[in-house]
Design a protein that fits this description.
GO terms for molecular function: purine-nucleoside phosphorylase activity. The protein has a single domain, classed as Nucleoside phosphorylase domain (Rossmann fold, 3-Layer(aba) Sandwich). It is built from six helices and nine strands.
């Protein structure tokens, strides 16, 4: 992997991706952020050596380098998921590349279902901890110790200082920002009533199909990390209705301006 990481990194440096400070993964709920970035360079994933290619129709496939709120950023417009048939090493490969290019902080967004029924769809949840239910680890491969400590510490995977800033920004702008535990499952099917009950017993506040692998690798690389979920549906096992993907995407779109506001105000302080 060291050889492929070097090859990818050199390619992007030659394309002008120099010394970014912050990496941003534009999951569901942050797509509009791109409109506020002064884009200096962009490359489609399928042109980058050794990079996976996005296959989900509402996820774009570009790596973008530019200036946002006075900071040099590198942005993933579209992410990769285990359910697309990738390995966990594929899913997290871009995080390793962003770290090699120079980032010290990784910010992530995603869409999630609210297991905690005090949380409502259209609201946001700051992730303060997570549960990995994807069945493996992105660090479970031969030679991982050459890239960082094999037994990566996960006692505090989300940066307390950044989370505190997010909460202060939300309060100052009258934004509802819950705080809770995110569980990551494989998908792509949605959960059964029994699975929602299990997740609640485990202490889950929101469930999704992404983010945790990237967070694990970011911690492996000693990056500061924060992540926010857009709560797109309410997962009440006693009142479960068939899922409407169009409605979920619409709900994410409604929350998007609020999410963008939070990220803009945060990056000013970093």
């Amino acid at each position: 992997m060291i050889k492929t990481i070097t090859e990818t990194t050199d390619y992007l440096k030659n394309k002008g991706f120099e010394n970014p400070e912050i990496g941003i993964i534009l999951g569901t709920g942050l797509g509009q952020l791109i409109n506020d970035i002064e884009i200096l360079h962009e490359v489609s994933y399928n042109h980058i050596p050794n990079f996976p290619t996005a296959t989900v129709e509402f996820h774009k496939g570009k790596l973008i380098y530019g200036v946002f709120e006075g900071k040099k950023v590198i942005v993933m417009q579209g992410r990769f998921h285990l359910y697309e048939g990738y390995t966990l090493q594929d899913v997290t490969y871009p995080v390793r590349i962003m770290e090699q290019l120079g980032i010290k902080t990784l910010l992530v967004s995603n869409a999630a279902g609210a297991i905690n029924l005090n949380f409502k769809k259209g609201e946001l949840m700051l992730i303060e901890d997570h549960i990995n239910l994807q069945g493996s680890s992105p660090l479970a491969f031969k030679g991982v110790e050459l890239l960082g400590e094999r037994f990566a510490d996960m006692s505090a995977p989300y940066n307390a200082e950044i989370n505190s800033k997010f909460k202060n920004i939300a309060k100052a702008n009258n934004i509802t920002l819950h705080e809770g535990v995110y569980a990551s499952v494989v998908g792509p099917q949605l959960e059964t009533r029994a699975e929602y009950r299990m997740l609640k017993i485990l202490g889950t506040d929101a469930v999704g199909m992404s983010t945790v692998p990237e967070i694990i690798v970011a911690n492996h690389l000693k990056l500061k990390v924060a992540a926010i979920s857009v709560l797109t549906d309410e997962c009440d096992p006693n009142n479960l209705k068939p899922v409407n993907i169009a409605e979920i995407i619409e709900m994410a779109g409604k929350a998007e301006p609020i999410m963008v506001k939070l990220f803009k105000e945060l990056i000013k302080t970093l």
